[in-house]
């Protein structure tokens, strides 16, 4: 939240960029997923995997190619049903590991409402010597903070990058049938070997 207050333009731009990346990956996933009974769920799962790849590599153009390489290496060995199950399982784990900042959102909304009420109601905010327009202006200035915090809560990040890394390496390891981490992500820490 301090970053939002210190540099609101960069914070909002980062959130909007993240939303656009997710939207592009969802469009790619819709085109790549064959039509079927679980079409929508499979597309969302693929989009979640693509987004996690991008978050770890920071290289959007190569994400789809890298995932295709991983899947194609194992396409002959695993049945499509198994591949879909592994994909859905990894996507669900990725979604579950995202942070949820409901408390932060509630604190910001309550702070905003209190500042508006104290600017408008003298019994709450007290008698002030300044013009009411200045007090209301200050309260209205905080309205951008509510928008950013709610958007940030919707586009939440992972609890830690290591969590995302472990899930993705487990996904790749499961696809490849290996017993140790693949370390396919640049600069990834060495994780425990089995």
Written description of the protein model:
Keywords: Membrane, Transmembrane, Transmembrane helix. The chain crosses the membrane at residues 102-121, 141-160. With 194 residues, the chain is an all-alpha fold. The chain folds into 2 domains: 11-99 and 157-176, no CATH class; 102-154. It is 73% helix and 0% strand. It has 10 helices and no strands. Helix 6 packs antiparallel against helix 8 (132-141) and helix 6 (102-120) packs antiparallel against helix 9 (143-154). The longest helix is centred in the first third of the chain and has 25 residues, at 8-32. The radius of gyration is 22 Å and the shape is elongated. The relative contact order is 0.13. Residues 187-194 have low confidence and may be disordered.
Q: Tell me the span between the first and last alpha carbons.
A: 39 Å
Unreliable spans: 187-194
How many β-strand stretches?
0
- Structural class computed from helices and strand pairing: mainly alpha
The backbone outline, from C-alpha atoms, is elongated
Task: Quickly count the domains.
Answer: 2
Give the C-alpha Rg.
Answer: 22 Å
Question: Strand portion, in percent?
Answer: under 5%
Number of continuous helical runs: 10
Helix content: over 70%
- Mean pLDDT equals 76
Main beta sheet, described? Answer: none
Name the helix and strand elements from N-terminus to C-terminus, one letter apiece: HHHHHHHHHH
Keywords: Membrane, Transmembrane, Transmembrane helix
């Amino acid at each position: 939240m301090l970053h939002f207050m210190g540099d609101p333009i960069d914070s909002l731009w980062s959130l909007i960029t993240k939303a656009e990346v997710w939207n592009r990956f969802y469009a790619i996933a819709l085109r790549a997923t064959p039509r079927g009974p679980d079409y929508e769920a499979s597309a969302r799962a693929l989009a979640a995997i693509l987004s996690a790849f991008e978050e770890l590599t920071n290289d959007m153009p190569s994400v789809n190619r890298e995932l295709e390489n991983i899947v194609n290496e194992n396409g002959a060995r695993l049945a499509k049903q198994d591949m879909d199950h592994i994909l859905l399982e990894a996507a669900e784990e990725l979604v579950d590991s995202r942070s949820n900042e409901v408390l932060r959102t509630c604190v910001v909304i309550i702070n905003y409402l209190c500042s508006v009420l104290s600017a408008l109601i003298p019994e709450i905010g007290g008698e002030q010597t300044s013009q009411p327009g200045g007090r209301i202006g200050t309260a209205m200035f905080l309205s951008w903070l509510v928008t950013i915090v709610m958007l940030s809560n919707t586009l939440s990040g992972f609890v830690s990058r290591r969590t995302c890394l472990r899930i993705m390496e487990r996904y790749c390891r499961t696809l490849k049938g290996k017993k140790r981490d693949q370390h396919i992500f640049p600069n990834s820490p060495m994780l425990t070997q089995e």
